[in-house]
Automatic annotation (TrEMBL), chain A:
SUPFAM superfamilies xref list: MOP-like, P-loop containing nucleoside triphosphate hydrolases
Origin: domain of life: Bacteria
One cellular component term from this protein's GO annotations in UniProt: ATP-binding cassette (ABC) transporter complex, substrate-binding subunit-containing
Stated name of the protein: Glycerol-3-phosphate ABC transporter ATP-binding protein
Keyword set includes Kinase: no
Organism the protein comes from: Leptolinea tardivitalis
Keywords: ATP-binding, Nucleotide-binding, Transport
From TrEMBL, chain B:
UniProt keyword terms in alphabetical order: Cell membrane, Membrane, Transmembrane, Transmembrane helix, Transport
A Pfam match: BPD_transp_1
Family membership: Belongs to the binding-protein-dependent transport system permease family.
Full protein name: ABC transporter
Domain of life: Bacteria
Record InterPro entries: ABC_transporter_permease (IPR051393), MetI-like (IPR000515), MetI-like_sf (IPR035906)
Domain ABC transmembrane type-1 positions: 146-363
BP term (GO), one: transmembrane transport
Membrane-spanning parts: 25-46, 53-73, 93-112, 150-171, 183-203, 241-263, 284-309, 345-364
Amino acid sequence: MASVRFNHVFKKFGDFTALNNLDITVEDKEFLVLVGPSGCGKTTALRCLAGLEDVTEGDIFIGENRVNDTPPKDRDIAMVFQSYALYPHMTVFDNMAFGLKLRGVKKEEINRRVNEAAGILGLEQLLKRRPRELSGGQRQRVAVGRAIVREPKVFLFDEPLSNLDAKLRVQTRAQISKLHQSLQTTFIYVTHDQTEAMTMASRIAVMNKGVLQQLDTPQALYDRPDNLFVAGFIGSPAMNFFDAKIRKADKEAFVEMNGFSMKIPANKAEKYMAYDGKPVIFGIRPEDIHNPEFLPSNINAAEVEAKVDIIELMGNEINLNLVSGTHNYVARVDPRTRFTIGEKVKLVFNMDNMHIFDPSLDSENPVAVR
Amino acid sequence: MQNPNEIPNGKTGPLTWIGANLGRILVSLIVPILTFVILWQGYIFLRDSDAPKLVIATIAIIWGVGGVALLFYVTNWLVEKLPGSWVRRIQPFVFVGPGLALLGWFLALPVLRTLYLSLLDETSTKFVGLENYKYAFTDRIMLEAFRNNLLWMIVGTSVCVVLGLLIAVLADRTKYESIYKSIIFLPMAISFVGSGVIWKFVYAYKGEGVGIQEIGLLNAIVVACGGQAQAWLLNPPWNNFLLIVIMVWMQTGYAMVLLSSAIKGIPAELLEAARVDGASEVQAFFKITIPYIQGTIITVTTTILIFSLKLFDIVRVMTGGNNGTNVIANEFYIERFTYNSPGRASAIAIVLLIAVIPVMVYNLRQFRERKAF
């Protein structure tokens, strides 16, 4: 068990910067998920930590030890690969025992640990099989078992669920969460799937283009994204963004969009006053747009007229694609809603959960104004 | 499919059927006959024609290639006229049949004839039972040849494979991999007789005397290092090893190319997993790489094994089998063409064939396991 620290780590492949000043501290026993689109550097970060890549600049610590120059075998980490990387010529038992044998663990101890791990993962009946005789889900569990038996300081997972079907993925997700609770070890988990990140992580590090965008708990990322990228990446369907302007009128402030405008709640108005007349990006999540018939109580509601473009029935909710003025956006409304396509309807934005992003500093990735 | 001409209650007699299908039967007979006539005429023309060579050659190519295609096409067409179940049964033979027939003619038949000859005396007229085999297994020269072949198989094969593997692994980690590999693969492109000539220069020894200049590369090196020029190919048992070096020079490239492609086929994640699991580079090599490419190693080994078992050219060119360097295939050649003793030669050939069979079977089984065919 140990903490992990990336201390201003850079990784370059020729001209390409895969990790740009990555600075993350993972606490002991934490479940940290690195999430981001493909090519964002999350896997590179994991491979640097495992010792499979050298860092170009900066330091990596596992516990108190700087491990930059430590070979993988001496870092006391275990890794579950995306392809599982099971040794095809070895049985399930030998696959799991391989690391222990190399470390000279006694035979009885190897048997004990492998059988224990097999018990946890439901692999007892498969110990004599070879990887090619296993299903995808079974292979995945063997890969996890191979990591467990080692009893390492840190577990690394590189997209371990991406080769499983949807149903199995949900099950395995829960199993890995449970495993983390029972093992009480540091887990670092890489995925491109924000649902996986949200459901399993104690904290999430969102990355894009080699840069850490935000590192926080799942709820905080969802409620208070630091920038446009995080706001758009976390949550499904994604947050709606509108090009807008702030307009000041006496003590009140409004967000002006193309074709309609909304009043900013009084308790928030003050911090946006300085943006009077400036272009900003207004963000609101689909779930914060309501059908007025089924309005939650105690919200700062702002009405908007919209034309219904597409209706997606999900059972527990309805996703509406809407058009207001020149803006297209999505709302997740109460399943009792009875709208028809083409209908002009009134909807309500919950302005308590609105987001404003300021493009003046970084036009590609505007920063949240809070 | 129901034939529309058929009477529904199934009372069709064979005569009615023939009557109804007379046209088809005639066509089925005429087309093959016509094909045969065309091919035969082509043959007659090629045999007797006085046309310019270029014309003859062009026609021969067209006749040969086109004839084969025509034969396949017509036979296939004929077979497809048969009822469905028969088509499925016969069609494979249409395509495999000619190949099998040629194999039988050029391979199986000669083997049987050799077997027959091996039981006759040197005039190929008198039956002598297993006398030739007794010779093959007891004669001093033959025993020496057996010993040398064993040497070739063990030393030659293992050096080829180990060296090939080593180079494949090392080259995999260098920058100019393809250059190194090309250089090492190059001797494969030289015929055995050609490389024999090359190595004759390497091992050349002119003897001692006034005005004699050594031209051998090896002797040049030895002399430059302060040693005495040697008659390398005259001293047993070392001359055998010097000959084996030639095969290693030629065959290492083959082993290297196959092993190298097998090594490149190992998923990178597999070796990374091993490293994370705690394996050193050497442990990862022996516990992951070697088992992973085991199939290729076996294939390469057996192929070179068979090769060294039937080795002939190098010995023939370099020493002619003298000075304790004889091998089975060379002894066969000597018996047949120098001593003109087809009985003994055939017996040796059969012995060689039987020795190759187990390796061959093992090799084929390996191929099948890996679904190579």
